[in-house]
Fold these 2 entries.
Entry 1:
Amino acid sequence: FIFAKAFWFPRIMSKYFSTIQFRSNEVGIKGEPCVNNEEMTAHPEDQKLAKEGSGESSGDYSPIGGKRRCTDILFLLLLIGAWTAMTGVGLAATGVIESEYIQKGDPRRLVNGMDYHGNLCGVTNYVIPSGEDTIELPKAYPMPSGFSVCVKSCPTETNYDLYTCEYEVQHGIDNLFGASDLTGNLTYDNADDAKKSLYLFYASRKQCMPQIESISFLGYCIPKLPTDKLILTDSNSIQENSTETYSTEANNSTETNSTVSISVASTVSSKRTDFFDEVMADLTNVRYVIFGFGCGMSLGLGILFLIIIQLPGLLSLMVWSMIFAIDFSLIAAAYYAKDVSVRWAASGTRSGNEAAALFIAHYVLYGLAGLWLMTVLFLRKRIVLAISCVREAAKAIASMPVITVFPVIQVLGLVAFSVVWGLYMAFLASSGEVVARCLCPVTNETLSSSLVESVESNNDGICDDGCLTHKDLEYSRNTKYAGWYLLFTWFWTSQFIVAVGQLVVALSISLWYFSRNRNLVKNATFFRALCLVSFYHLGTAAFGSLIIAIVKTIRAILTYIQKKAAKSKLRVAVVILSILKCLLWCVEKCLKFFNKQ
């Protein structure tokens, strides 16, 4: 009876009744999607499938290999137009096209440091008292005060006999004792005790910095601070240190050298710095493990898993074992909670409320276990159907192994677009007006480790004592609109690439599933699906991705407004915006689900 029901009866029904229809959102017969050959083999003998490839259709059924037409071509043209407009904005930001609305940018303005006068090292034309131009000094070297000065290059070795000072201080010392080179550095070998005292005096005022071996990172010099010479403090005061005696390796003699203390502003959190340093160090140390095991090993295990789950009964065993393991875990947790609550009540080691709460929790766990079991029994047919779908998908991927490489191609396409998009965005972001601002410590005791909001520096670009100088960029309204447009274009393109991948995979599986002889289905079927999607259905992918991109852009705008509201301490507005963001997140997830289906 089971044999007849599974094989012969569907054959007779499909042969003599023409009411069986294949719908566009189903991959089976009459509401039974994803049924494999072992469970139902009616569809190969269906007369409608005999029309596959002939271009004929009847009713609402259109054969998979039948004649196709372009879908949603308007939205594909809109996407191409969006890319064209993005290119125009990018060319205007890079200076290739002159525009009165968007200024030419310079990415160096984003990465190069700023000196204490508000000049960008290597970018701004500013002649310092020594006669040099800061445009020829591309690196920012830090001072003990937290300010920076522009230098030609970062020190490659530590030498406490060489100092770099603020421009005016260095120029004054040069006038008094004479400069030794173009950079204005003076050595102790050519200086007297007065010069030594002068350098130490200005070092104590945080206006001079000894030459310390530094790492060149973007436009900054990051000193490697040796603990035997530099004493870091977390206050704004300079530690008065006496001379320190140490032994040199050159002559094995004992010399006396003054210890220079560098004050680090109390606003810098050493814990945060240490955390990010440790994260970057860990990522650097395990980079081969990440790419080897994280990418190569995961791909290999994924392919192995696809092969294993095709073994008869193994996939069902795995799924049902995990389902019943969850129920068993809930029952075991309930039994353990009851046992512990009884022991607590008998021994009196815990309060009566705790024992009672744990006793009630064991009833809740038993209830969850029963609810889970009833849910599984109610959905048992859907679970079996899902197992069949997964098994069939594994067979399809085994027949078309090239489909496993397609996500890599998608990633490469997104990376290629992101490179161009990132270049345009960098030039656009650097096209704003650079403004020097100051960060000053908060005097309130409750906020002693924070900084006040940015304030304008004085006319000379110099902040008050104890404050830090940082750069800020102010953008015009057109530049802001262009930035939002580029962000929208990135959302649209990234979702478009995802949608194309979903269409190609879905069509490949459909062609495999409805094939008369699946043994003949190879990688060529995947490439056929890729061609069909590329020639006929890119508009549909553009349409679906456009809707998601709009929602994502709205969420980004709300996030921007929320940050502005939080900065203005508008707590009610922040809460309302958070609720709206959550609602849009739900809408986005639903839209992604609909697009995928």
Note: The longest helix spans residues 477-513.
Entry 2:
Amino acid sequence: GSSAFISWIFAKSITNSSKQGARYGVAGGFGYAAWYLSFPAAAIVCYKLRKKGYSSLPQAIHDKYGPTSALIFAGCVAYRLYNEVWSNSRVIADFFGRQTRNVPHSNGQGTRTIDASDGWWISAILVTLLPLSYVFLGGMRSSLISDAAQTVVAVIFLVVVLVAIEIDRNKQNDLKNWATEGSDKAWNMFEYEPMQDVSGLSLKGGMDLFALGAIQGTLSYPFFDPVLTDRCFLAEPKTMARAFTAGGFFAAWFIMLFGLIGVHGRMLGDCVNDGVCSESILNGASLTDVRSGAPAAVARTLGVGIYSVVAIIMITTGISTLDSTFTSVAKLAGPDLHGYIETGKPLRLADATSKHVWIGRIAMITIAIVGTLPLLDNPAELDATTVAGTIVSGLAGPIWTMAILPDDWIWQGTRPLAFLVPVILCATIGICFRLTTAKDKHGDLKYQRAAREIDFSYLDVGPGIYRRYLGINILQACLSIIATFVFSLDWCWFANDDDPHHDYKLPIKAKVDQFCSDDADTTDTNGFEHNTIDIKYNEMEEAKAGL
């Protein structure tokens, strides 16, 4: 439970929650927490797959949709892991140096770009190298052990920060007078709404963000994140499902509470901006950054001690995410991809050899380098969630279908197009949309021709900031489900009704039901983590051979 909890308390998620809190009030943190519906979604899907005898998500996709689909899925996973490197190292680096920013010229015309400081780059690189070094040597076991300690540190320090904010607020008489002087403001952070005359329960007030997170979190987002799904196959199935449900609940609350840091920053910044509070209360922090809810800037207003505590929270959560990322990269490159090259299908962790370990280690070094390069373009942290989730939204139909349909309803053999068509179709839509919004480090559109010629405005839902994201994701969810249904029919192209498991399916399922009810312990083979079901799967293989 603690591993699942801390592995999804990303440094970039904390930053996003804080910034959304500054933008929408408590509705911002609540909206971002919608992505944590990924926990129960992953628990349900993986529980069902394990009851059907699968020991990993790639194995299930290979079995029901064929080897090409498994390879495309690996590409989706690699894209996710690539995003996790730069998005988490970036927010930690903000505590140790100046990030790239665009500032207005002195004459008020246009902006100029100030590149990130050397300290910023050094910290971004070091925070990537630290988890890489111990996961390189210790495998997933080192990641799981560190997760428990990191969970305790993160929770205790969040409580300390929230208490410090409340103490600081009670000392700020000017802030209190400003917040209580009019009917359009509120002293209570849970009631404060930064957007005047806009309800937090409206689409414009942040509910479009919540709807977007709920759609992605329940349908597709969890399945291309091996940091989450790898852990779904470690413990006994029922234990896993309970741990993920509880872990997701507490992780969502953690993220929502961190949004209050952004709410406090917005209140403080607005008070200074209105001329009621003195700028000295910012303690040298940028007014723009404080109002935007940047954790580093808000923490600076609370003094050196709290600034250090928030920095520790960010470092702890960032390193936890990065070590899990590198572990997942090793599994993807070793047993999954190299196993596919060798045998035509992903290998089980129990079959991993020292060769797969070294392939995984090389892949970890590669992703650490490649995943740092996007920082040259100064991307926004939220892009790693909204953009990435939009591009892979086609996973919804295929994965939910093979998990929840009873064995008597689902097809025998493989249906490649039932996976490839929805995934590629939705990825094409997502990439086209990204071409219309991507910006360079100067804040200018990178693909101006695409922005002029591709129009998605007719898909807008409501007047909110995320109206287009929401409309596109609704369309993609519908397309994914419809395409999966159509191309799973037995008359479709490339449909294969030959089920290599047909002869032993029932006895194997009976064994799986028995094994899934047993307690599982954890062992480590060549740096990879697996559980009892992986080991006992060998007994199922023997049963197959005897039938």
Note: The beta strands are 101-104, 111-114, 522-525, 528-531.
